[in-house]
Amino acid sequence: MDEFLAEMAEILEEDTVNPRDELTSFESWDSLATLSVVAMADDKFGVNMSAQELQRAVTVEDLYQLITAKKAA
Amino acid sequence: MKLSYSGKAITGMLTVVPAHERKFVDEMANFNFSPKRSIKLAEVMGYDRHRIVAGAVTSSDLAVAGLEHLFAGGKLQREEIDALVVVTQTPDHLMPGTSKVVHGRLGLHHDVFCIDLNQGCAGFIIGIMQAFMLLDQPTIRKVVLVNVDVMSRKVSPRDRNSYPLIGDAASVTILECDAGAPAIEARLKMDGARREALMIPAGGLRRPSDATTAEMVEDEEGNFRALDNLKMDGSAVFNFVLTEVPELIRGLLAETNTDVADIDSFLFHQPNRFMLQKLADKLGVPYDRMPSNVVEHFGNSSGVTIPVATTSNLSARLVEERLRVCLAGFGAGLTWGAMLLELGPLNFCEMIEYQEDNQNG
Description:
Chain A has helices at residues 2-11, 31-45, 51-54, 60-72. Chain A has 73 residues and is an all-alpha fold. Chain A is globular, with a radius of gyration of 11 Å. The mean pLDDT of chain A is 91. Chain B is of the alpha/beta class. Chain B has a single domain, classed as 3-Layer(aba) Sandwich (Peroxisomal Thiolase, Chain A, domain 1), CATH 3.40.47. Chain B has helices at residues 24-27, 35-45, 59-72, 98-106, 123-134, 234-255, 273-283, 294-297, 305-313, 315-318; strands at residues 2-5, 8-18, 21-23, 49-51, 83-87, 113-117, 142-149, 169-177, 184-190, 198-199, 217-218, 224-225, 231-232, 265-268, 323-331, 335-343, 348-354. Chain B is globular, with a radius of gyration of 19 Å. Chain B starts with a strand and ends in a 7-residue tail after the last strand. Chain B: Keywords: Acyltransferase, Transferase.
């Protein structure tokens, strides 16, 4: 989770992010950020997520859950 | 699908780009996004400047300019063209095909096999395959392959998803029989079920263009486009490339007992720098052996990007030496293909500019 949070902070251009932060509270949460999460999920978790799947996430932690759940599946 | 060729080679390559250049920073105001986010996008994707025609230039205009340049320089003779393959998604007309338009404008003789192929970003790979098939005929000794797209005329200038990355260009590639040429291995895959990922929805018979298809509509991300415009599902395309292309390349390398280190240059289609670096990472290819600078300097010209990457990065070497290259194209269809071949020394490998003021179709 720590590595994930560090990756998310970089994608969202913040010093740190908290699991409970809502994604839409970040000005930088847009299609480019979504694409960066897709690439990160592929690179760090070996999971192929679609942008559509990621849209279900409200918070940063939701994203982590979606990725790890797909990896476990 | 596995494809193999022998006794055939690429002997020359020319690219034509519009002289007219536009900068991303000057176009940012057209997009419905904050300048800060647009600049971030440009940094990640590698947007800087791109070549876009200014006026009503067509595919045959760019193709004819390229071929006339070769005739004028003595690098190609009109009479020796046995076949003309034109690969484009932006034809001059619905009918006749653009190969016929080019044939007529150049005054070629009647014993020329002219054929149009509607292919996108895999268009260079598919074009070479078609040219090689033609070279199996004893009467066909020299094939001219033209890849050309003037996609700027079909992309909405207010679509930040597509407009900043596209560029217009043409290439002329000469393919000939060469008994001593090393064997060429290729792979090709298609998935028409995913055809809507890259599409111009209107303008064909399924949805003819009318006043409603020209209407600009805002999508959920804030891009404005009409049904007459190119629509790219960027995220679906990204997933497609990241999943299918590394697998295809790995298979081709494994089946030919080739290591990544054996390849001098990975000349891939140029969607944007971000995607190419992800591909390089997945394949373990050093960035200096996979050019990714075409979108930055010229724009993504669909099937023409491999020749643009080649003539802008390797022209000096390719007229002198022989390089082992791995080509890959992937896009509309969906179509993805790769080819392993020895390239060079070429009779010519250069890029020229198309001046709109001097050349009016």
